[in-house]
Design brief:
The protein contains seven helices and four strands. By secondary structure, it is of the alpha/beta class. The protein has a single domain, classed as Metalloproteases ("zincins"), catalytic domain (Collagenase (Catalytic Domain), 3-Layer(aba) Sandwich), CATH 3.40.390.30. The chain has a four-stranded mixed beta sheet, with helices on both faces. α2 crosses α5 and α5 crosses α6. The longest helix has 16 residues. It is globular. It starts with 36 loop residues before the first strand and ends in a 6-residue tail after the last helix. The N terminus and C terminus are likely disordered. Pfam families: YbeY. Single strand-specific metallo-endoribonuclease involved in late-stage 70S ribosome quality control and in maturation of the 3' terminus of the 16S rRNA.
Length: 195
């Protein structure tokens, strides 16, 4: 899990829901949103992931019961993620996804935290793995949602648990297990030679 950030560039929501009677009445109930704010900071995302916002919502819905609903999802660039990664993790390079916990613990049922994606890194990884950008982004959305829920992969046991859960949640979306090696090309399976 990425370290909490109190300076995330996406403002956190101050809302209360019926699940938290202690704060009910402080904030208007109409402020509660079922889905996160989705920001597309670079329009190139739409070239590689048609209906990107719909993919984000659909993937987060598949995480229900395991992952945590973020307050926002930002489809950004390597440049932005490299700066954030340097500021918050001391790693001055881009990464595929960053998750940020909110500076406060949101009441149960209230979205919280941000998930930010780096376009060029996501494209590079999808191409290297021979996957569609949409499938790779869906995997990373699941990964980020699980990080927000407290799952991590710093030790072998927790990494294996997270990988198995990611595969299970992706199967809800009919996306192949990203941790299982893909088979040979069709021509190779049928015994034909590839040029």
């Amino acid at each position: 899990m990425e370290p909490p950030s109190s300076t995330s560039h996406v403002p956190a929501r101050d809302v209360a829901g019926p699940e938290n009677p202690a704060t009910a009445g402080f904030f208007p109930s109409c402020a509660f949103e079922e889905t996160p704010e989705i920001l597309v900071e670079d329009r190139r995302w739409h070239c590689y992931v048609p209906r990107a916002e719909q993919l984000v919502r659909h993937t987060l819905a598949a995480c229900k019961g395991y992952g945590r609903q973020p307050g926002s999802v930002v489809l950004s660039t390597d440049r932005v993620v490299r700066v954030l990664n340097g500021q918050h993790r001391g790693k001055h390079r881009p990464t595929n996804v960053l998750t940020f916990d909110p500076p406060f613990a949101p009441p149960p049922g209230i979205p919280g935290g941000d998930i930010i994606f780096a376009l060029e890194t996501v494209l590079r990884e999808a191409r290297a793995a021979g996957k569609s950008v949409s499938q790779h982004l869906a995997h990373l959305i699941v990964h980020g949602s699980l990080h927000l829920a407290g799952y991590d992969h710093h030790q072998a046991g927790e990494a294996r648990e997270m990988e198995m859960l990611e595969a299970r949640l992706l199967s809800r979306l009919h996306i192949p297990n990203p941790w299982k090696p893909q088979g040979k090309p069709e021509g190779m399976l049928q015994g034909t030679r590839q040029a």
